[in-house]
Structures are given as structure tokens and as C-alpha cells.
Write a structure and sequence with these properties.
Number of strands: 0
Distance between the termini: 34 Å
Radius of gyration: 19 Å
Shape: globular
Largest sheet: none
Order of helices and strands: HHHHHHHHHHHH
Helix content: over 70%
Number of helices: 12
Length: 266
């Protein structure tokens, strides 16, 4: 690597970290919003575990089936905070001020993503702890469990870039809810709450190719929980799909977000 290239990389990392620190400082000023973001998925887990009851078509403990699915759901959803922050910055003119500074293009977006990834790690830790308290366990050792957590965070990384792009498309905070409503069916058209085997054949096939279903199936297998495989190609190769889907989504949405950010207010 040449000295000039190393200097540009160092500059990009420095600018991105500066933007990450800005987002972390915002958390300190909005602790309620952070707390709600951590508590809401826990409430969903408790509701579906005790009130609604999930695991339709699953042989085995319902909680051990549900918890990995809810971990995947938590990583795929909860983008409202990201989208609201981006649209608020756009409408307050903050983005325009950043773009006028000698800053690496995209550092604002990278900092936003990095800060939200840190919050995602916290959310994953909280959900894992609650699941453990409910009786959920992993059975395939530490290495497999860490691999499962890595796949969950990979999904989150991709979804955050999708959220950043959708926020810039929405443009205004009041449009975020409308965009988010369109995302919800993706979550429920998955194997988070029920096995595809309990669904009509065509619907089960669609569900198994959902990116979130691939991650849920993969982490169930890695954790040694029920529902890790249903005998189909998608289920048997869930770990492969759980890696390929986020990479593909990132390859689509990251460049789109950076390009749209670069052309704002032009």
C-alpha cells in the first residue's frame, strides 16, 4: 500500500470514527430512546413466547425454536432510530454542513452505521440474556455460538445500509413510518415464529428463501436448537445463504446510499 493510499484510508477511518462519536454522544442525550430500542424486542419475545405461542410445526422446545428466530428478527428490524436520525439530519441542514467540510465522502454514513452496530451488539446481548433466563440454551459449543452471533451481526450490518438508503429516499421524518410499514411483512413472511413445514407448500418455499429465514435457520443449527433444517436445499445450505444474502444486500444498498448522499442538494 502506497503512502498516499494509507493516508486516505487513515483519513477515512478518522472521519468515520468522528461521526461515530457524534452518534454515541446523541445516545447520551436521548437515553429513553436507547432504552426503548433495547426493551421493545424483549417485549416481543416475551409476548410470542408466553401469550401468542409460536413454534407451529416444530418438534422440540418452543422457546429454543423461538429465541434464535427473535434474535434474527431483532437484527433485521428496529431501523426506525437509524432512519429517523438520518432524515432529521437531512431536514435540519446538518448533512449540508458536513458535506461542506473537508471530510471523506460517506464518513457520515459510515459513522451512523458503526454507532448503530454498537447498539445492535448491546441489543443482541440483552436478548441473549433474556432468552437464557427463559430457558433457551445453545448446545454446540462456544465456537458455533460465536459463529451464529457473527451471522446475526452480518445481517444487521446489511439491514442498516438498507435503512440508511431508505431514509434518504423518504427524505422526511414523517415518511419513515410509512416506509417501515412496508418492511414489516418481510419479517412475518419468515420462519421466525413457525416452521415452513406447517405452511402451504408454495408459501413455505417463499419463506425459506427469505434472507431473515436463512439467518434464523443457520443460527438455530449452529446453536443446536430445533428448526435448524427441514430437508430442503435452502435449509440444508442455510449457513451459506445467511452469508450470501447480507453480502448481496450490502453490495446493493451501500453504494446506493453513498451515491445518493454524494448527490444531495446538488
Amino acid at each position: 500500500m502506497s503512502t498516499a493510499t494509507a493516508g486516505r484510508v487513515g483519513w477515512a477511518l478518522t472521519d468515520s470514527w468522528t461521526m461515530t462519536r457524534r452518534e454515541l454522544a446523541r445516545w447520551a442525550r436521548q437515553p429513553v430512546q436507547v432504552a426503548v430500542g433495547l426493551v421493545f424486542p424483549v417485549m416481543l419475545l416475551l409476548m410470542f413466547n408466553y401469550l401468542v405461542g409460536g413454534g407451529s410445526g416444530v418438534d422440540g422446545d418452543n422457546t429454543e425454536f423461538l429465541v434464535p428466530g427473535m434474535l434474527a428478527l431483532t437484527m433485521a428490524f428496529g431501523l426506525e432510530g437509524t432512519m429517523l436520525a438520518v432524515t432529521q439530519d437531512l431536514n435540519k441542514g446538518v448533512i449540508d454542513r458536513f458535506r461542506s467540510m473537508p471530510m471523506v465522502p460517506g464518513a457520515v454514513l459510515a459513522g451512523r452505521n458503526a454507532a448503530d452496530m454498537l447498539q445492535s451488539v448491546a441489543a443482541l446481548a440483552v436478548m441473549t440474556g433474556v432468552g437464557y433466563a427463559l430457558g433457551w440454551r445453545w448446545h454446540n459449543g462456544t465456537a458455533a455460538a460465536l459463529a451464529a452471533l457473527g451471522l446475526l451481526l452480518l445481517l444487521r450490518f446489511a439491514m442498516l445500509w438498507a435503512g440508511i438508503q431508505l431514509a434518504m429516499v423518504a427524505g422526511r421524518p414523517e415518511m419513515v413510518q410509512a416506509v417501515q410499514i412496508l418492511v414489516w411483512p418481510v419479517g412475518f413472511l419468515s420462519n421466525v415464529f413457525a416452521s415452513p413445514e406447517s405452511m402451504p407448500g408454495w408459501l413455505g418455499a417463499v419463506v425459506e428463501w427469505n434472507p431473515m429465514s436463512a439467518t434464523a435457520t443457520a443460527v438455530r443449527g449452529l446453536f443446536g436448537n430445533p428448526g435448524g433444517s427441514t430437508g430442503t436445499w435452502a435449509a440444508e445450505h442455510a449457513e451459506l445463504l445467511a452469508g450470501l444474502w447480507p453480502v448481496a444486500l450490502t453490495a446493493v444498498f451501500l453504494p446506493l446510499a453513498v451515491r445518493r448522499f454524494a448527490h444531495l442538494s446538488r
